[in-house]
Amino acid sequence: MGSTSAGNHGSGNTGAPGFGRRDLIKRSAALGLVSVPAMSFLSACASGGGDNSNDTNTKGKTSKTNPFGAQKGSKLDVVVFKGGYGDDYAKAWEADFGKKLGITSTHTGTQEITGKLQPRFNAGNPPDVVDDSGAQQIKIDVLYKNGQLLDLSEVLDAPAIDDSSKKVRDLLIPGTLDPGIQEGKVVALNYIYTVWGLWYSGKLFKEKGWTAPKTWDDFLAICQDAKKQGIGGLAHQGKYPYYINVAIMDLIAKKGGIDAVKAIDNLDPKAFVGSDAAQAGVEAIYEVVEKGLLMPGTNGLTHTESQTRWNQYKAAFITCGSWLENEQLKQTPSDFDMKFMPMPMLAGSKMPFEAIRAGSGEPFIIPAKAKNLPGAKEFMRHMLSKEWSTLFAKEANSLTILKDGVDPSVKLRPGTQSTVEASKAAGSNTFRYIYPDWYSEMDTAIQNASNELMAKRIQPKEWLKRCQAAVDKQAKDPASKKNHHD
């Protein structure tokens, strides 16, 4: 499971019905003010990158408007994870690229990223551009360790398409490059501005007279009321414990503040065992399990099965990231009124209710051995133009990491609208864990512990022990010294 839009997302990118108004997108401009804690080493990215011997057949003349010498008449091999955002946006990009630069694309939309691409990476014949996401993502840290990723600093330092007096990186929302960093180098471009938290149906809440809870006690009270009425309290995507970790890790962050986040990312010997915040977070979730407030059967369901039952009003809440609305388009009743909310607060939390986990998701990579490196770099530079960012928003109903990157004419659906409003309300109160991107093995161990916890096979104390053991194991790896969440 990646730290992005995990799971085998169903696609579905029909045009948005007339939700939202012009001023909604103006509000999304406020996202430019949302900052994920930036890392000091971001500015110290190494320049250059990868073996550029593949440029010979595909490199044309460089110019101000064509900094990499993308060659007219060359071909680009593009592979896109066809999940919650579908792949229509990429087809629109490729068509525009062909029209503007005369470079044609071979397009593959798939959910089998590892199955289709691992053999190609192993054979030294990877695609040129890859959206490496989903349940079958090839882990970024693994590709990086194997020397298979291009350092993207050349793209980020190139002139921006919309304003050639600025570098591409200057037009991005602060902090959004952080998850793509390995040992100080940006090797993956997480393209989509994502928020994570709880979701509910505005219609169901109105019918039941429930108000979106700001405290954990109020959250539990709604779950208990729901249970009395034959409705599950909390649904989660049981077969993919990535999702319940959204709740557990958000509670830890809000309880302990940014220091609790950094303790885990920086492999602190008291990241879990000895952390009051970690203990409070896991005990809060376990209370939901113990009191029978989970949606019945949720532990055995895939993400789409669980989410579909939630769409059928079989649960009050579900945890997810902001791809949920796109993923569930076909299963969501027209009057469901999908809403996003931050994780409710535990008593004595250091962060306010409005604080949310926010940042970038959906990593795009350029393999170091791509056959058309100039074309791939130019394609990525175009991704960070207002025109392509707007194409993405139109097709995928989501915001990108480009500041003010969506044209005001684009109308977003209600769930996405509510994430924009939540981001505005959060302001600078955002946080983001980076350990899943840096340490995929540790992330998997924490997910496995959560799976056991939700099934009542282990108690919170044992969960803390297992998570700490995963941290301690990772800390012994000398490579981990090169990563630091400042």
Describe the structure.
By secondary structure, the chain is an alpha/beta fold. It has helices at residues 22-28, 88-101, 113-122, 140-145, 153-156, 202-208, 216-228, 242-256, 258-265, 276-290, 303-311, 324-327, 373-383, 386-396, 414-426, 435-438, 440-454, 460-475, and strands at 75-81, 104-110, 129-131, 181-182, 185-186, 189-201, 232-235, 315-321, 338-341, 356-365, 430-431. Strands 1, 2, 3, 6, 7, 8, 9, 10 and 11 form a 9-stranded mixed beta sheet that branches. A hairpin with a 2-residue loop joins strand 4 (181-182) and strand 5. The chain is globular. The two termini are 25 Å apart.
How do you describe this structure in short?
By secondary structure, this protein is α/β, with parallel strands linked by helices. The protein has helices spanning 22-28, 88-101, 113-122, 140-145, 153-156, 202-208, 216-228, 242-256, 258-265, 276-290, 303-311, 324-327, 373-383, 386-396, 414-426, 435-438, 440-454, 460-475, and strands at 75-81, 104-110, 129-131, 181-182, 185-186, 189-201, 232-235, 315-321, 338-341, 356-365, 430-431.
